[in-house]
Amino acid sequence: MVVVIPLQYKIASWNVNSVTARLEHLLQWMQDFQPDVVLLQELKGVEETFPFAAVEALGYTAAVYGQKAYNGVAIVSKHPLTAIKKGIPNFTDENARYIEAVVADKFTVASIYVPNGQDLDSEKFTYKMAFYQGLTAYLATIRTAEKPYILGGDFNVAHQPLDCYAPEKFKNRLLCSQAERLALQQIINLGFTDTYRVFHQDTRAFSWWDYREGRFDRDEGLRIDYLFTTPEATDLLVESGIDTLPRGLLKPSDHTPVWCTIVVSI
DNA sequence: ATGTCCCTTGGAAAGGGA
């Protein structure tokens, strides 16, 4: 007799805008939300300053790719992390924007922080497009990987008009331009799934609100944080969502956690 | 319309990035 035990894993992604400044929020949220895996972006610090002891006290382990002052990504997990990769393979980038690891020997997760791009006519925008090209080239190689793969992070693109509070105002502007939307679409075209939309097809929901102009209070935001799954991981999806609670706290990150749950049988 | 927050330098306030 074969006994199949289904195990659920809750995977979240959160751009914390400095892990040091957001430590209390992060720890409280982890205790309340109980994610199995948290993908972090914008640590804004080197690995030496990451709060390993604090997350370990809550029963988590962490893989960190840090950088002084800017960027920085991490994977925080209740389950063992192996096969850790820092940086997108075969893409040269001086910034710490991608980290990947296998969780519990069952599935692969990655945390990504895509460049903001500054302005459509800036050198930083060219870098953003090159970054997407490098990312897409890598994703084309791993989508046939044997383990389910989940890529979460700040993609700095609102995929569709529904993902923006003022589509007309943002038309052809940074985060909503044709070029950026096409770059994101190319990932979807490889077979990746935007896990939020699987369970919330027509919901206007956001993951980031500008600090200025009281944008959060007016719910004037953009959905620029995503969890993407390969077909093997999409098959395991049972739920997804956005937790807006942390964005309403005092001294919040400008982003809030996005999450999905998968079921894995052992 | 440039309104907020965080980091760094350098030891206060200002610039850069988002």
3D architecture notes:
- The chain has seven helices and twelve strands.
- With 266 residues, the protein is an alpha+beta fold.
- The chain has one domain (8-265): Endonuclease/exonuclease/phosphatase (Deoxyribonuclease I, Chain A).
- The protein has a six-stranded mixed sheet with strand order 3-4-2-1-12-11. Strands 5-6-7-8-10-9 form a six-stranded mixed sheet.
- Helix 3 (123-142) packs parallel to helix 5.
- The longest helix is centred in the middle third of the chain and has 20 residues, at 123-142.
- The model has no long low-confidence stretch (mean pLDDT 96).
- The structure holds one DNA strand of 18 nucleotides.
Protein topology:
Layout: E1 6-15, H1 23-33, E2 37-41, H2 52-57, E3 61-65, E4 73-77, E5 81-86, E6 98-103, E7 107-113, H3 123-142, E8 149-154, H4 167-170, H5 178-189, E9 193-194, H6 195-199, E10 225-229, H7 231-234, E11 237-242, E12 258-265
Parallel strand pairs: 1-2, 7-8
Antiparallel strand pairs: 1-12, 2-4, 3-4, 5-6, 6-7, 8-10, 9-10, 11-12
Helix pairs in contact: 3-5
The chain binds one DNA strand of 18 nucleotides through loops.
Average pLDDT:
96
Structural class assignment: alpha+beta
Q: What is the helix fraction of residues, given as a range?
A: 10-25%
Query: Beta fraction of the residues?
Result: 25-35%
> CATH homologous superfamily, by name?
Endonuclease/exonuclease/phosphatase
Number of domains: 1
Biggest β-sheet strands, sense, barrel: 6 strands, mixed
So how many helices? 7
Shape: globular
Question: How many E strands?
Answer: 12
* CA-atom Rg in angstroms: 17 Å
Strand order of the largest sheet: 3-4-2-1-12-11
Weakly predicted, low-confidence segments: none
CATH architecture: 4-Layer Sandwich
Sequence of secondary-structure elements: EHEHEEEEEHEHHEHEHEE
CATH topology: Deoxyribonuclease I, Chain A
Question: What is the CATH class designation?
Answer: Alpha Beta
